[in-house]
Design brief:
Subcellular location (chain B): Membrane
Distance between the termini of chain B: 64 Å
InterPro entries (chain B): Yip1_dom
Distance between the termini of chain A: 70 Å
Main location (chain B): membrane
Number of helices of chain B: 8
CATH class of chain A: Alpha Beta
GO cellular component, one term (chain B): membrane
Membrane topology (chain B): Multi-pass membrane protein
Order of helices and strands of chain B: HHHHHHHH
Shape of chain B: globular
Largest interface: A-B, 31 and 32 residues
Helix content of chain B: over 70%
Radius of gyration of chain B: 20 Å
Number of strands of chain A: 10
Strand content of chain A: 5-15%
Oligomer: heterodimer
Order of helices and strands of chain A: HHEHEHEHEEEHHHEHEHEHHHE
Structural class of chain A: alpha/beta
Number of strands of chain B: 0
CATH topology of chain A: 2-enoyl-CoA Hydratase, Chain A, domain 1
Amino acid sequence: MSRNKIIAIIVVGVIVVSLIVLVWVGLSQMIAPRYGANIGIITLTGPIEEEEGGLLAPYGITPELVRGLLERVEGDGRLKAVVLRINSPGGAVAASQEIGNMIKEFEKPVVVSMADIVASGGYYISAHADRIVAQPGTLTGSIGVIWMHTNLDGLFEKLGIEVETITSGEHKDMFIDPLTPERRQIFQRLSDEAYDQFIQTVAEGRDLELSKVRELATGELYIGTQALELGLVDQLGGLNEAIEAAAELAEIEVPLTMELAPPVPSLLELFLGQGSILWELAIARVLGEEMALLRTLLNTYPMPRY
Amino acid sequence: MQKGILEISMGVLTRPTSTIRSICQERPIGWAIVVYLVVSLVAALASIGLGDLEFPEGGGLSPAFLAGISILLIIGFPIISLLTLAVLTAIWHAVASLLGGKGSYGGLFSGFAFANLPAIFTAPLAVIGLLPGIIGVLLVGLGSIGLGLWSLALSIVAVRENYAVSTGRAILIYLLPTAILLVLLGLLVAVVALPIVGGLL
């Protein structure tokens, strides 16, 4: 047998085996589970942000991501409930509130299955679920607001930049200037307001007395067993218990699950998208590391975070 | 030439220049169509693994209906792709003739059809794409770029051998329709879209 024939046989063999694998995997993943499944599982991991990160930045939880995945569950007549598997330390206030509202208004039963940590904003988005299941060792709670104000004076001085600000409106420069006692009070008021909104949401979502939530909303973390005692979660357990809970809420006799995967980012997004390693390297290369840091700090207004 | 389809295909992959030269001279259009359809069919099936083919979301449709739509998509893709190749070849043939190239439409069509052969490797590539996480995306992305460049090089060889022109002229012939299309699109934007946008502002 000639060398070419052997290569041809190997190539044809590889193609045929690949096609068999692809058709088998494709049909089993894309068609079959849709007809058996009745509970959707959505995994949400990372910080809650308005925009997702790039290749080396963690891919976080964004309102756009959650909306897309919930719409898929909503539009699929066979899926009667959804389990949200969450692992998140929290994040931006408005993004957390937007996701929280989506869950609140979602028409099918929603069960949250807490992983290692579901704190602060992570707990905020969980609060409106129909049931919360946490592991005994899950860290949750951290009901509070944090607001970090960066004083850029030292960096400006190091870079030889002298900034003079002209403002209309007494406190227009409150984000960049050092904190005065008066401005500290303004920030405190804003932080308190965001904190009250958090407490209100937890009280409403968990059907707890406002005063009780206020008592435990010290910003501290609670371990799963404590969270159960405090009424922050409904039961202890893992994903299987959460699926059972979803089945019970949706009156499903035999729960069959289907994982809804988030869209895979394209190569272009991974390498060139905002926040990607190449993007950040290019910025650092063009501006220099210190200027790149300054740019990041100036672009990131000190925002309250859950 | 009078070789079997497997031998010609292997020749395209291992000895591209001489094989494509004889393809352009002997114009095995029947084999070219068969090879193109098979490669496109494999690419369409591979697209299931790569998730490129959009399957309709459930919404009360029966599994049989969905399976039917899927099969129609997989079969329809190679046929539409073949018709597109026939039309595009005519454009390239016209451009090559205008630039002084002397060759046949059939030779170029056969050359282009066989130049698509590397796309058959999208099947094993799609299997690699099943690897979880970024590594799968990365390998599929790089592999797709590699296969695309391989096909592109074979297409340019087909133009060069069919019209007996230099490699530089073959590249010019190959890229000119794309460049003209871009210029036309630019003009369209300038003439139609800009005044509309300007009016809105």
